[in-house]
Amino acid sequence: MRDALDAIEAGTAAGDKLVVATVVSTIRSAPRQPGAKMVVREGGRFSGSVSGGCVESDVVERANAIFAGGESELVHYGITDSDAFEVGLSCGGEIDVFIEPADDEVWSHVRAMLDDGGHGMLLTDLATGAKTLERGTIGETGLREDGVFAEFVEGPLQVMIFGAAEAAEHLCAYGKQLGWYTTVVDARPALATPERVPSADEVIKAWPDEVLDRIGDRTVVVTLSHEERLDVPAVAAALRKNARYIGAMGARKTAERRRGRLQEQGFTDEQIDRIHGPAGLDLGGRSPAQVALSIAAEIVAETSSGKKKKEPAPTTA
Predict the structure, then answer these.
(1) Domain boundary assignment for the chain
(2) Residue 126: φ, ψ to 5°
(3) Which residues lie closer than 8 Å to 104 by C-beta, 6 or more apart?
(4) Global pTM?
(5) What is the percent of the chain where pLDDT is above 70?
(6) Region 23-50 average pLDDT
């Protein structure tokens, strides 16, 4: 969404007419998911994609028709036939794309909401093109039965990393590519420096209990320090705040000690089982960069828009 907003803002500032194309539904193995956007500027330049290259040229042609006075339209793209150059999706999937003139006022409201750290649902009536922004609401992105495309809009994923280990820099570097906002927290002065984690958006020298107000139910929390004074308070706070994802490093003995400390604080086994430990998908690598990659992959898997969040167990801690 941020890339699309940047393109809209740049085009508007240059005085260009703009068209926005949005994937609103998919069937089978479509290359992009609902909500994927492509912004076309008058003259044919565009940014973003709706199919990864299969139908973008046709979208540009349809955008040109809108620039010439045409109406918004909902376009269905399906499987190509034997003509390799026919517009279509060679992957075997199907997508519906809504192509419309950019409404500068609506998109400026969306940007303002994200700049304020907010989130909400952007509703588009595909019959009329009318848009409504519902701030503060949470829902799933998809096409409703009433013909309204509902899109959950939020700012960058907030990732808090406790412990400025070597893997922290790699995780922050991956985060930049994925559009995350990363914060590294460490109470040790020699480690909590921008020079050690230059890819982090923010480095804070503090103990976990000094930054608890930054953790919420839309925050990702990862502990990398192997230091109980950092790890246990951070994980406990993440459980209390029902963080979106909780990952902790450490082998079996470390995990057992952590579980014991958390049980002493009143957390149940069901709550503690929310912790991914050791954090990361098992990709087989053991170097700091490989460990960070495995954690990044697991975060994507757990926070993607298509995955429903498990409701938290009642807390007594």
Answers:
(1) 2-113, 158-303
(2) -70, -15
(3) 8, 12
(4) 0.78
(5) 91
(6) 90
